[in-house]
């Protein structure tokens, strides 16, 4: 099995006293999905930033498709919590931007962008600006902006946390469909147990800068999972590990 991401003994400190990551070892196979969950301040975002090459670990090694990571990996797209859309660009132009930077013309890219906007249910919004969109619509635009470049890895930092429950579930379904159809490797930081179980084939539970437990999730990959007893059982299992970690 090819590994998309390998972290070996990765440690990172923002300051002298308290390391944010301590000896992280993790493998994420290609075409799989990994959810990272843990209490506030345990190092989830720091881990994602290390994978994106935004910060450089003081110790350890990260490789992406077998190559040492030293800058933002060309195979990756990242979606941050605040969407990071350009406010002066329309939905279409925010999504087109990546192709433009690759030298594509607007006319040449029009069909490709339109197709993706349709797929994500935001084609009708193509001429609107970010301030005219709801949170869920902004997040779909941010996802489209990443997907237009067909990344092999998608990194998401609490991508659905600012959304209401139903919009959250719609977006989770969309991410699962993307993972299944495009076989994109997804690494997602989340605060939500149901989200981790729905979207994580591998669920990484973090505690105080360390990986406390890695759970393989055999029920991953079903769009109709949420009402099934196995789903509740898996959520309970993750909750138990989180509670156990909190009492250490
Ligand atoms: N820029 C920074 N400078 C100094 N310390 C930081 C910085 N960013 C994060 N930290 C510290 O590093 C630790 C890990 O933070 P991180 O943001 O990775 O946690 P998290 O699990 O993503 O938290 P949350 O769920 O609240 O977003 C925390 O103790 C935090 O205070």
UniProtKB/TrEMBL annotation:
Domain of life: Bacteria
Membrane-crossing residue ranges in chain numbering: none
Ranges for domain ABC transporter: 5-233
Keywords recorded for this protein, A-Z: ATP-binding, Nucleotide-binding, Transport
Xref: Pfam families: ABC_tran (PF00005)
InterPro entries documented for this protein: AAA+_ATPase (IPR003593), ABC_SmlMolc_Importer (IPR050093), ABC_transporter-like_ATP-bd (IPR003439), P-loop_NTPase (IPR027417)
Keyword Iron set for record: no
Keyword Nucleotide-binding recorded: yes
Protein name in the entry: Aliphatic sulfonate ABC transporter
Originating organism: Listeria floridensis FSL S10-1187
Organism lineage string: Bacteria, Bacillati, Bacillota, Bacilli, Bacillales
